[in-house]
Specification:
Layout lengths: L3 E5 L3 H13 L3 E5 L2 H11 L5 E4 L8 H11 L5 E5 L4 H9 L4 E4 L4 H14 L18 E4 L2 E4 L4 E4 L2 E2 L4 H12 L4 E3 H9 L8 H14 L9 E4 L3 E4 L3 H6 L6
Parallel strand pairs: 1-2, 1-3, 3-4, 4-5
Antiparallel strand pairs: 6-7, 7-8, 8-9, 10-12, 11-12
Helix pairs in contact: 2-3, 6-7
Bound molecules: calcium ion.
The site of calcium ion has 5 residues, from loops.
């Protein structure tokens, strides 16, 4: 299978030149010209690519932000930044947000191709790489804290009292339970629970989280089960002693 390269570049002549030359080397190339589209593709399925060639100054989302967000969901996709920003601090920032290589524009084609070969050689074929999302296990019921939930009968009790959850709240709870212990990004919740990506406000996920906390936490302001992981998302912990031991959880 040909290595698959996603090129994010808003200057058409550079993008077309890259595509032409990379394809001539036997790579499969996808071009996108805005940061917003790139972010959507990567959040939806970063495993679809073996390498990312990324411009920094882009319409929509900047290359730095793309790197940063991508690294939260995928640590192994090699990133080559291709940018006119040539200051040492620009390069340093690029590496800080997770880039593997940084090449200045204008670039030498042979050098770019050598760097691409180098990155693809260093990073194992992504088909064999561990998937960022483990297959979730189906759970039919769970007891945690004061709550007992049966996902087949939709029966939910807290302190022995019946509680009504909406269908969406139950789906969200189920996703947390099936992925317990793992940090889950808001974007993943939107894709997996709401079946939308990108456009819908991640803030609405937060609203649902507040409702779950209100229902299940003794002190919703100091959650023991539905933890916020700062700048990343959420983590569900059924056993609260584990939450107290945790060092990554804030409030
Ligand atoms: Ca640009």
């Amino acid at each position: 299978m040909k290595p698959r390269i996603l090129v994010v570049e808003d200057e058409t002549h550079i993008a077309q030149g890259l595509k032409y030359n990379l394809e001539a080397e036997g790579y499969k190339v996808s071009l996108v010209d805005t940061g917003t589209t790139a972010m959507k593709l990567l959040e939806n399925d970063s495993q679809a690519y073996d390498l990312l060639i990324l411009d920094l100054m882009l319409p929509g989302v900047s290359g730095y932000t793309i790197c940063e967000k991508l690294r939260q969901i995928d640590q192994s996709l090699p990133i080559l930044i291709l940018s006119a920003r040539s200051l040492a601090e620009d390069r340093a920032r690029g590496f800080d947000v997770g880039a593997n290589q940084y090449l200045n524009k204008p670039f030498d084609l042979d050098e770019l191709l050598a760097r691409v070969r180098n990155l693809l050689r260093l990073h194992p074929k992504r088909e064999n790489a561990p998937k960022p999302k483990p297959l979730s296990t189906k759970v039919t019921e769970i007891q945690f804290g004061r709550a007992s939930v049966n996902f087949e009968t939709y029966q939910v009790t807290v302190d022995g009292r019946d509680v009504k959850l909406t269908h969406k709240e139950l789906s969200l709870l189920r996703y947390f339970v099936e992925n317990q212990g793992r940090v889950i990004s808001r974007q993943e919740l939107l894709t997996e629970v709401w079946d939308v990506s990108g456009e819908m406000q991640t803030r609405s996920v937060d609203q649902f989280l507040l409702r779950l906390r209100k229902t299940f936490e003794i002190d919703p302001a100091n959650p023991k089960h539905f933890l916020t992981i700062r700048d990343v998302g959420y983590r569900f912990v059924p056993n609260s002693s584990e939450a107290e031991d945790s060092t990554v959880a804030d409030h």
